[in-house]
Amino acid sequence: MPIWPARPLSEAPEVILECWRIMQTVSGELHLIGARPERGTHRVSSAVVEIDIAKRVAITRSGRRYVLVGGAGPNEHDARSYVWLAWCRSNRVIEFRDITNDLISDADVSRQSPRTPHQ
Fold this sequence. Notes:
Elements: E1 14-25, E2 30-36, E3 41-44, E4 48-52, E5 57-60, E6 65-68, H1 78-90, E7 96-98, H2 100-103
């Protein structure tokens, strides 16, 4: 499965994510991961700088607006996990935590303990 950089903000100022999760790196940065239904791909966002949990909207460091559609997806999802772990390797993230359930009360997956990209 190929991994490629995001299009410029001017070409894609808003991204819709389904089957999404919220990840936290050991440095405290939050990142969104999920499926892009209109493109049939998966995405890892840049660091989240603002998030409105009630509205399911986030703004990232790049200025892109993410809309989280539907409920959070299952914790283990092959394509989403592949993209997230590839992003972690590329960005030298060695520890992270899925904090979706900590932030979203209707998330449908159990809490996760800290993990490394090699698990």
